[in-house]
Amino acid sequence: MHEVIINLHMHTRYSDGSGLHKDIAAVALKTDVDVVIVTDHNVLVHGFEGYYKEKNKKLLMLIGEEVHDQVRDPQKNHLLVFGANRELAAFAENPQNLINQVREAGGLSFLAHPDDPEAQAFREIDISWVDWSVQNYTGIELWNALSELKTIVPTKLHGAFYGFFPAFVAHHPIPKTLAKWDELLSHGHRVTAIGGSDAHALNISLGPIHRVIFPYEFHFRAVNTHALLSEPLSGEVNKDKSLIYKALSAGHCFVGYDLPAATRGFRFNAQGRDASVSMGDEIPAKGGVTLQAKLPFHAEMSLLKDGEVIQTWKNQTACTHITTEPGVYRIEAYRRYLGKRRGWIYSNPIYVR
Fold first, then answer.
1. What is the pLDDT of residues 27-68, one digit of tens each?
2. d(CA 41, CA 61)
3. Region of 263 on the Ramachandran plot (φ > 0 left; ψ -120 to 50 alpha; else beta)
4. What is the mean pLDDT of residues 265-285?
5. In which band, very low, low, confident or very high, does the pLDDT at 206 lie, cut at 50, 70 and 90?
6. 3-state SS of 61-125?
7. Long-range contacts of 179-182 (CB under 8 A, 24+ apart)
8. What is the fold, at CATH topology level, of the domain defined by 2-257?
9. In whole angstroms, what separates CA 163 from the centre of its chain?
10. pLDDT at 160 over 90
């Protein structure tokens, strides 16, 4: 498998971001990110998809869309759309119809920031996903960096602190979102988890203080989605776009918080009597299954089955667990950073059937 680092869910001046596509590309080329997916609100922007290069580094920019019903009050049910062949904002009023239209257009759909609470100090409203009757979406945005910020800024003073020191923000996905994902998985749904930056590079003023909150470059070094492709990127846009979206659709990916330590190189696999699979895949329980996880650095690592921790390893880079029990198995890893235990890696599950 060939790993690529994807930073997704970001906004430009075409909606409510402060930068241009060329600004995002220029900054991303300075980091380890391989792919960015720009998703402006309710507009599918044309003309910017493709490879950007600087010296020996190249970056693939893909263009998606974040769709929501702008008439709805209060605002809810934002959907990230990747790979659709047409504009879909006209279908925002009915979330299920929107998801159906995405599928018909050949795209992928992810429920954006499922839990996005209000932040009264900054007059930010709750824009969580509320229509849980929907079906046939690809996955959910398990970790949204901006949503998490809203949970820790009860005052403007808190906001000012995190504006100057954004590395202190991220701790883990919102627990309610994690619990909802496990609930969906336990009911037999195949739901791919991704991590998004929700980057806006907002210009904020608090009296004499002026600051860009969460600049694009910071996001590229923080919460990313790492995809495992069946072959390396070729440099041909359409072929590579297909490889990336195929990996995301299959759940061949994990969420990595790359600021405490690089998560590139993490793997979670399973070997059975007749098959060997990776994250997002199914494997028969018959004959026994060996689950193996490998970390790029020492960390605390937990194996979860159907949302419950069944084994934990401390200060390890690898773990093995043998099972004959059907279930949904996934890995979480934690590291200490800036004095706190923080979520580091969240794998997509292996389905033992």
1. 999 999 999 999 999 999 999 999 999 988 999 999 999 999
2. 17
3. alpha
4. 96
5. low
6. EEEEEEECCCCCCCCCCCEEEECCCCCCHHHCCCHHHHHHHHHHCCCEEEECCCCCCCEHHHCEC
7. 179/307, 180/114, 180/115, 180/132, 180/140, 181/140, 181/142, 182/304, 182/306, 182/307, 182/328
8. TIM Barrel (3.20.20)
9. 22
10. no
Question: Is the domain 267-352 a CATH 3.40.1160.10 member?
Answer: no
Q: What angle do CA 54, 5, 343 make, to 5 degrees?
A: 135
Q: What is the reported pLDDT for 205?
A: 66
- The reply to whether domains 2-257 and 267-352 share a CATH topology is no
User: Domain limits of the chain?
Assistant: 2-257, 267-352
pLDDT at position 87 over 80: yes
Give the model's pLDDT for residue 190.
Answer: 96
Distance CA 25, CA 213 (A): 19
d(C-alpha 10, C-alpha 198), whole Å: 5
